[in-house]
Each structure stands twice: as structure tokens, then as C-alpha cells.
Amino acid sequence: MPRFATIDIGTNSVLLLVAERTAEGRFEAVRERAEITRLGRGVDATRRLSAEGMEATLSVLEAFAREARELGAEDIAVSATSAARDASNGAEFLSAAKERAGVTVEIISGQLEAQLSFAAVYSDFAGEAAGPLLVLDIGGGSTEFIFGNPAGHVEFRHSFDVGAVRLTERFVRSDPMSSEDRARIESHLRDTFKTLPPPPPASGLVGVAGTVTTLYAVRHAIDPYDAERVHGGTLSVGELTALADRLCQMPLEERRALPGMQPKRADVIPAGAIILLESVKALGLDGCRVSDRGLRWGLLAHRFGAGAARS
């Protein structure tokens, strides 16, 4: 079976997916990897990618591209999102990626990012949804909301410039987070999300990306991380409220030691928890499902699915 790879370069992390395309057109994962490199560190304030963030990301990109080729990937699709979109020196990063890893990085729009995340979730959860499917993709620099109908057509999508890294850098001044810092984040999110339209009746919400999966892993002390135990799980508003309270009141070193926590994500997870909680509240829902399959899976189908192969 032919093998293909996608690499998703986010504001906070880089994710690799190598998968086989079956005769039926489905994809089966051969390997998945993730590394936190913080490409977007400081971008909110400076509008530039830092030398440290670029070097850490390029090093991982080189390793992931080499690994994909060693596993027999015929082609590699690489996307970059919020940090690269916002940075004035994004072209410098793209050139270095081509030179060092031999890949072409596509900086995708927030709208395409939302579409690809929805496609990944729809393929897994559409059969379980009683009504329309909503997708929430929380990244380091931005958060995407996507509303789709039961037939899989996107009816609303929007990318907001609020992410776990961006809000931590903008608002958090103490460790643990002060009540004043938290109040500023909550106020900013409520003001940002007030433009969201009400979701269709009987909607089901699915959250994707590292913030959501990490919160579920911490809630259930899943250590080491196990995608099969995380994917398809549920987080209620009550659980999210308790998680946000706990994480915001806990010093960084204690957060790093929590079972289920990626240590490099511990500094931004309180802001991420608040984003998820305020998102669910803004939609008027009582919780969300959890997906371990996000943009990298949507990009795989978009670039290498049966329809793409014929084009």
C-alpha cells in the first residue's frame, strides 16, 4: 500500500503522521510523532519568529522528514499555521525548511486550517453525532470554530487570534496565575467569542489538538500518553471548570509533574484550559468530545486521498 506523510507545524508543536492508503481509500497510521518546539514564542509581541524557535522547529522538521522517507513515504505535505502566518520573517523560515529538510512548507489560512480540522473530525465522529457536528481546534496562536451539517458540509468557520501561547504571553504575569491574570484572559475571550453565532440545535462538539488531548490525559492521569484511550473521550463543563481551577492555582513545577502532562506544555496549559472552558460556555454546551486526530489527518486526505490522487 502506498505511504504518505504530513507534518503539521503549529505555533507550539510539530506533528508527524505517516500513513498507508488502503485499496478502499482509507488511511491507516504507520507512525505518529509530536514534539513541542514553540515556533511562535514571542510572535504576538514582535511579529517575528525568534531564532530559537526557528532552530528548534527546523531541527525537528529535518528529523521528521528523514523519518518519513525512511518509512517509505512517497510524498510529504507540510503545513504551517498561526505563527508563520503572523510573522514578518516567515519567508526566511520557509527557505530554511526547503534547504535543510527538503520540503516545501505551505502556510495555510485560518479558514483552510478550520476546513481540514473539520474533515478529520467528521470522518471519525459523524456516525455518532445525533445532530450537526461542531469542531473546536485550539492551537498555540489561534482557535478555530467550525460548524458543519450532518452531511459534512461546513456552514460556518472562523479563526480567532486566541491560542494558549499567545494568551499566556499577553496576559500571564505570575506563577501560579493570579486571579487578575485569569480575569483578563476570561474577559478577552468572552469579548472575542461574542461574535459567534448560536450553534444549531442538537449540536455535538468535538475538540482537537494538544490542549484538549492534554487536558483529557491529565484528567484521567493517562501516563504515558495513549491515543487510543484519549480519542473519543468526553470532558464535561464541570470537569473543565475543575481542571482550569486546579491548573491555574498550581505552580509550574507541579504542573510539569502531573501524570498525563507534557512538561513542555505545562507553562501554557492554564490558558489553554480557560480557552476550552470559555469556548464551550460561549456555545452554550455542556461539554465536548475529544479527538486525537486533527489537522494532520485532514491534510492527509486533502493532499493524498483518493480524489486528490486522481487530480
TrEMBL record:
InterPro entries: ATPase_NBD, GppA/Ppx_hydrolase, Ppx_GppA_N. One of its GO terms (molecular function) is pyrophosphatase activity. It holds the Pfam family Ppx-GppA. Residues 21-301 form the Ppx/GppA phosphatase N-terminal domain. This is Ppx/GppA family phosphatase. It comes from Myxococcus llanfairpwllgwyngyllgogerychwyrndrobwllllantysiliogogogochensis.
